[in-house]
Amino acid sequence: MPPTAEDAPALNIPESNATVKVHIINSTARITGVPSSLFFEPDISGNQFMNCPAYSFLIEHAASEQKFLFDLGVRKDWENLVPTLANHIKQENWQINVEKGVAEILEEGGIKPKDINGIIWSHHHYDHTGDPSTFPHSTDLIVGPGFKKEFTPGYPSNPESPIRDSDLDGRTLREVSFADSSLRLGRFRALDWFGDGSFYFLDSPGETSTEDGSPALTQPFYTAAKAMNFDVEVAQESIEKMEDFDANENVLTILAHDQTLLDVVGFFPKETANDWKRKGWREKGMWRFLGDFEEAVHEAGGNNE
């Protein structure tokens, strides 16, 4: 008997008339040759290696006249990542190409780096942290719980750190805490960043690198890989919590490395993401990930037409 669709779970997002303007930034980064098995499993034919962009997001809050960036993609001079990481990328023959840094892209679009109040790092991986040193010291760096204890000081002060001293030097490092928050959006603990219901932080530990399908499917295509250096159970739990949002027709879920969206969504500076629903981005992009399985379908003797 085929599975039946269920109603999307309640997200309990408080009502608010306040909004932020969101731009998706194509950071021009392209990452290829990284084994998919480092992030998700099982290994499926035709999808053994990553070939992906790295998006950044510009958040503009008109009421406070503040601007924030969520992630920075890969730094343009990726060879200047901490030596252990740069050497590992070279040894494994991973291919990274970055045409422009996010600061350059902003300036070309009419926004000066000094206008950015803060950079939000979703997590510490090099394909999200970019190069904060291309922004002035007035730009804060905002990180998640436990970051300071685990990763500071940076390299070379701490030879084991995956970030550089230059990422932090001279700027305010703000660590977000969800400990005192009673707010829940879906199954996530949340923080109302501007205090007006326009923008929330969700407490989602682990890295959500899989594409799991939809609520109509009884099993995901992928689960978080045990090979990666993170808490797999926590990561998988975050993925499942995010499925509640992805199931809601009023939510557009964008993964930072989803290459299938490159010709679906509009990018800074030409378009904002605020009118995604009118433009049909969700419907256009939702099932494109199925193309990842074309080779596997052929090998299995199936018909993918």
Quick summary of this structure?
The chain is built from nine helices and 14 strands.
How are the SSEs ordered, and which strands pair?
Elements: E1 21-26, E2 29-35, E3 40-41, E4 49-52, E5 55-61, E6 66-70, H1 83-91, E7 95-98, H2 102-108, E8 118-120, H3 126-129, E9 140-143, H4 147-151, H5 165-168, E10 173-175, E11 184-185, E12 188-192, E13 200-202, E14 223-224, H6 232-246, H7 276-279, H8 281-285, H9 294-299
Parallel strand pairs: 6-8, 8-9, 9-10
Antiparallel strand pairs: 1-5, 2-4, 2-7, 3-14, 5-6, 11-12, 12-13
Structure explained in plain terms:
- The protein has 305 residues and is an alpha+beta fold.
- The chain is 19% helix and 19% strand.
- It has nine helices and 14 strands.
- The strands form four sheets. It has a six-stranded mixed sheet with strand order 1-5-6-8-9-10, with no helix packed on it. It has a three-stranded antiparallel sheet with strand order 4-2-7, with no helix packed on it. A three-stranded antiparallel sheet has the order 11-12-13, with no helix packed on it.
- A hairpin with a 2-residue loop joins strand 11 and strand 12.
- About 4% of the residues have low confidence.
